[in-house]
């Protein structure tokens, strides 16, 4: 019945490849769930749940390590050019997911600092950007699973929405700080949390660009607008 | 006289490898010089020079692209396990250098926003952290060139100094903002600039860890302390 006597030991290149993609998708879903949990924790002001999210980040880091190992195993099989592009994309995408996980853990970490001050209404603005980022992560992972460069391109285009929301929130926070000195410390944490989420959006965009590279090779990407204006923002 | 007739077309594996390392070192020195220039521009309040630094970042991005291409060429030669580790480290280190370049450009970008407000004394604190980060980048590049895991380990240990300075500056900036509402906007830019530099320190640490991996494989790294306490900082 067993036509390939060693298939339980030596897996085919394609099986290993599928496993690698599966690991990356799992890693990505973990990062999306971490961000979702972190946003929830900000709303509920739950320090214990925040601590769990921070601890969970290690599992994502461990998976990135596994991906690197598997990439090395695949590369040792002396792959062709197209396979190598896939391997390179896998490495980069897993690194981006690892960073997304870091940023999500950071949002959770700062939420505990936020809980030392009275609740601020502006956490709702943060949640809106955060939910958009969660959707971006899930959409780009689906594009990766489906090898769909057009879907990836849509994720990339949508990043401008996160940037616009971020810029608005940034300015709102500044006025808030100017009106009430007691709000400065919590608002500073919110500024960094918003920045973390904006960076998560950038990493989703990086993943989208790697999917493009995977499908089209080094063909030039269509141009994209970038709307984060806070680097040069002045007092509104 | 020419003993290897095709050496001008087909380079040896070792020659290609040396070229790759040379590209990464060049890229790293560019990033260190960018950070140095950005710190200088903050002091001199020179918007034109800031614009040049921002434009220069493209050259670093272009070099990362070249490194990726060269890594793929090397991987196609069907390398051995130790070579693969070198290739993997090269990819990761060049990605870290690319991020350092981004952060340096960001410091330059925010300096132009800072110049819209009157000068702040706290830019000196920023410069001190920045100079430390420049040294860290140069030291870790030298460790990479020399394949010196012990030197890399020293860079990694020294990152705690940057974190300590960053935490101090962060708290200082907060009190400043509370004393004078007009300082809030420029201090917010300084907060992000300080954070950019703190992140540069983290990337130098990542590079150090990849040098360790390069030399020792997956042997566990010695533990390291992490002193950035601002994630949970409260009003001093």
TrEMBL record, chains A, B:
Superkingdom to which the source organism belongs: Bacteria
A GO biological process held by the record: phosphate ion transport
Keywords, alphabetical: Cytoplasm, Phosphate transport, Transport
PhoU domain: residues covered: 24-110, 128-211
Compartments where found: Cytoplasm
A cellular-component GO term for this protein: cytoplasm
Membrane spanning residue stretches: none
First-listed, main subcellular location of the protein, grouped into a coarse class: cytoplasm
Function comment: Plays a role in the regulation of phosphate uptake.
Record family assignment: Belongs to the PhoU family.
NCBIfam families: phoU_full
Subunit structure: Homodimer.
Protein name: Phosphate-specific transport system accessory protein PhoU
Species this protein is from: Luteimonas aestuarii
Taxon lineage: Bacteria, Pseudomonadati, Pseudomonadota, Gammaproteobacteria, Lysobacterales
Recorded name of the encoding gene: phoU
């Amino acid at each position: 019945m067993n036509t390939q006597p060693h298939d339980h030991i030596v897996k085919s290149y394609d099986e290993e490849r599928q496993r690698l993609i599966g690991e990356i998708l799992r890693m990505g879903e973990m990062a999306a769930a971490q961000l979702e949990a972190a946003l929830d924790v900000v709303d509920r002001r739950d320090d214990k749940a925040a601590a769990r999210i921070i601890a969970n980040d290690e599992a994502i880091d461990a998976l990135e390590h596994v991906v690197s190992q598997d990439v090395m195993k695949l590369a040792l099989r002396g792959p062709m050019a197209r396979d190598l592009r896939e391997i390179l994309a896998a490495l980069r995408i897993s690194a981006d997911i690892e960073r997304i996980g870091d940023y999500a853990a950071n949002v959770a970490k700062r939420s505990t600092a936020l809980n030392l001050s009275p609740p601020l209404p502006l956490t709702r603005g943060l949640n809106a950007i955060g939910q958009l980022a969660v959707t971006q992560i899930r959409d780009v992972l689906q594009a990766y699973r489906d090898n769909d460069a057009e879907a990836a391109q849509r994720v990339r285009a949508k990043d401008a929405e996160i940037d616009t929301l971020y810029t608005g929130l940034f300015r709102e926070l500044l006025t808030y700080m100017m009106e009430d000195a007691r709000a400065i410390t919590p608002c500073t944490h919110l500024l960094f949390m918003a920045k973390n989420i904006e960076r998560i959006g950038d990493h989703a965009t990086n993943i989208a660009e790697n999917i493009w590279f995977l499908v089209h090779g080094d063909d030039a990407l269509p141009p994209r607008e970038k709307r984060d204006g806070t680097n040069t923002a002045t007092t509104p």
